[in-house]
Amino acid sequence: MRRTDTAQTAVAPLPRGIRPLIAAAMLVLVAFASPNASAQLVSLDPEIPRSVVIAPNQESAIDDFIAEFADDAFGTDRAAAARALDELIDPLLSEGVSVSFRQTYSRKLADRIEAALTDQPVMLEGENGEQSINHLPFHALRLAGEIATDQTLNLIIPVLSSDDAGRRYFAIHSVETVLFRMRTASAVGPRTLLNRRQGEADRGLLPDLGKMLAEEPSGRHAAAIVRALAEAAELPSDALPDAQNSALALIGNGVSARIRNRENRAPSFEETLAWLTAGQRIVRRIAQPGSTDSTASLASIRLGGQLVASVFRDLEAGRVVPSGERENNPDAAVHTQLLGLAENLILFGEQNLASATNRAPNTELIRIAEGLDEAFKAGRDTELRRAALQLISPNGLLTDQPYRFTDDEFLVE
Description:
Blueprint: H1 20-33, H2 56-73, H3 78-89, H4 99-117, E1 123-125, E2 131-133, H5 136-147, H6 150-156, H7 165-181, H8 190-193, H9 205-215, H10 219-233, H11 243-262, H12 269-286, H13 294-316, H14 330-356, H15 363-370, H16 372-377, H17 381-392
Antiparallel strand pairs: 1-2
Helix pairs in contact: 2-3, 2-4, 3-5, 4-5, 5-6, 5-7, 7-10, 9-10, 9-11, 10-11, 10-12, 11-12, 11-13, 12-13, 12-14, 13-14, 13-17, 14-15
């Protein structure tokens, strides 16, 4: 069975003291005497973010808007910073934000973003010695991701190798945000993301993310990398040619390497979640006939084989729910889901690979893959073992033509 997944006045609080009414009256008098003291928030004309060309008067309005909120957004008062950051980001969330606006915003805020990402302590100390997580780098990463230009992306990239796990995770998420924003108005050039040079291996952010995916020790971070690469797979071809196939191949091969490198160790919940996320995001794309090239299709089949190998190893090691107890058991449901994804990855991968290489689909491969999850759910473990070995053993279908994975690709001695 085949499946697919899926500007109002800001009123300051009254000062504390023995005469609050007098103090309030004085504030009112000052407000009437000086219009600039009314604390009226600066707003930005909603047409400016959509302007294809930023005129001088619009640029002045942008300057005023940034000046109103930037100090607070990059200040040490956490609550004030959060409110000001939301104000700065709000124009970037409207429909039809232009490349020109993103680039103007980027140019005017890049120095502040960079400063908030450079030599920043992990913790901040308050006046009374209390410590709290330094929010400034996270605010900078969030803003950089929403601006989504080459300039801000290049400020995010170094944080991907941060020693601090929290900043590294948030940097991955910011990259995902950049790639999502590129769907509608791309202010990021292809050289930053996927730079191929003749005679050299792939270079650029996407290949680097693929390498990170294979080597990242944290399953939680790995799932975040999968989501970022999956955004690249959704980009239209005019935003980044070849991104779709390249990103899918990086996901499939990166997660396959993670599964293989575990050998016979049981995966953590977060690790398994990364595998499931990868399979689901690939199936979402590859379920469309002719949607992927041979490289992406083969990576899909490889990941399917690795998921089968993982369940096979758990079966052999006794790490599965006994056959008569699998119905409505959440632990058994995970293995069923892994096998269901393996089925779809192999089936749709084979259909697309056959189309890309001008041959008929391998009916034997399809026949064996189609029954994997049903055999497990029904407790037919002997049948499941036999089917798995027909696929992934050194003499199996996936180690033979036309796939030609190595004999020890799936079952490591």
